Amino acid sequence: MTKTETKPMTTPMTTPKKKSKRPSRRRRIALAVLVVAGLIALVPGVSLAGALSAPGNTTMTERAVEWMRDHGGGGIVNRAENWWFSHNGPKTGGEPDHGITFDTPVWGRPPPTDGAAATTTPHPPDVASVAGNSLPNEGVWQPVGPAVSGDRAMYATQVRPDSVHTSLLDGLVWMDPKLVRFDLHPGLQEPGGSWKTPAQVPTAQRLDLLAAFNGGFRMQDANGGFYLEGKAQKPLRDGAASFVIHRDGTATVGQWGRDVSMGPDVVAVRQNLDLIVDNGQPAGGLDDNADGRWGSTLGNRVLVWRSAVCVDSNGGIIYGYGDGLGAQSLASLMQRAGCQRAMELDINPSWTTFNLYGASTPGNPASVTGTKLLPDQHKDGKRYLSNDSRDFIAVLDRKATP
Asked: Helical H runs in 54-167?
């Protein structure tokens, strides 16, 4: 029994305990480091996951890019986009793959009367082509969309952006200020803040909805403000190009503090950069972005989808957009359309949209559908009938109560 009793008498576990203390401390330190590193990785991961799963009608790619911009990656995104569009721009030469027609349904409304009534505003002259010989209907204003009180409220045309990219057709829409009214809607992400106005055209207004188009840059890039519901989400900047909506639903475009300013009749203002057309002429320095007045998002000479809105000499509002446009050619497009003062809106194929709307079943707002003005527009005709991430302008029948 002596031998068996001496076995437990050997050094009782003290040495192993001393040896295990250091590895345990190292493990604890390593575990702490891993936990901290995991938390550092988890925070943006959770943030990105939240951005990707947020409500709205944007794609996963669009959400991921916007998340990068919000988390310090805007410079990287801008450089990548500049490189991509510079090396994958529109082709030169060629002919458009479709004709210039606007086969938009009447959507159950009474047909318009022949000719414009005396109370409507004359649309601008036809738009001259800069691409040599004009294509059939190029630059010719054609009625589009539903009739309003028996008259046409909107006219559209298509033109090529220049004499080099002759396979492209950019779109223009003129809107009669006596027949339509405008509403500014905030998006779910832009301009930020909390609003009573929804991020889509509400069902109650859809039977009076004629069209809708995109707003401006994200507010962090717009170098301007946003005013709605009696409050500014971002302060309005003197000198900024501004789309201004009055209490009676009319709208105009001008330089804030010179052509337009705050007053009791102003209900909404969307600012974006500086005017690209002023007094009927393109602004100087557009190509070189003089003094940084036209933003850093995509170089001004990069040819990409761009959009703009303006006011003509009769108070009509004109929207223009399409592919193959730099800041200078966008300004030229708007000038040729008859603009007196024009401002650039959003750019990039993901964000430039003009849709026409109407009810397929008269009196049924659930049957309202949308049609793209340009067939190669990226977003479909349903945009603005569900919550959108960015602000936009709705165009409605003027007889509707604001």
From this structure: 60-68, 74-87
Encoding tokens for residue 352? 């430039």
Q: Over the stretch 271-287, which tens digit does the pLDDT of each residue have?
A: 999 999 999 999 999 98
Alpha helices by DSSP H, listed for 307-378, are 327-336
Map out the domains of the chain as residue ranges: 14-83, 93-397
At 148 the three-state DSSP class reads strand
Q: Retrieve residue 363's tokens.
A: 């009196």
Question: Which token pair is 225?
Answer: 């403000």
How far is residue 348's CA from residue 371's CA, in Å, rounded to a whole number? 20
Token pair recorded at residue 396: 């409605």
DSSP assignment letter at 30? H
pLDDT in tens, 345-402: 999 999 999 999 998 888 899 999 999 999 999 999 999 999 999 999 999 999 865 5
Residue pair 145/179 in contact (Cβ under 8 Å)? The answer is no
Q: Is the peptide bond before 191 cis (omega within 30 degrees of 0)?
A: yes
| Other CB atoms within 10 A of residue 219 CB | 22
Distance CA 263, CA 28 (A): 65
Phi and psi torsions of 270, nearest 5°: -120, 115
- What's the rounded Cα separation, in Å, for the pair 374 and 46? 38
Query: In whole angstroms, what is the distance from residue 227 CA to residue 193 CA?
Result: 11
Residue 158: beta bridge partners? 171
How many residues are listed for the chain in this entry? 402
Q: In the 8-state DSSP scheme, what is residue 71?
A: I
277, 313 in Cβ contact below 8 A? no
Q: Which amino acid is at 243?
A: F
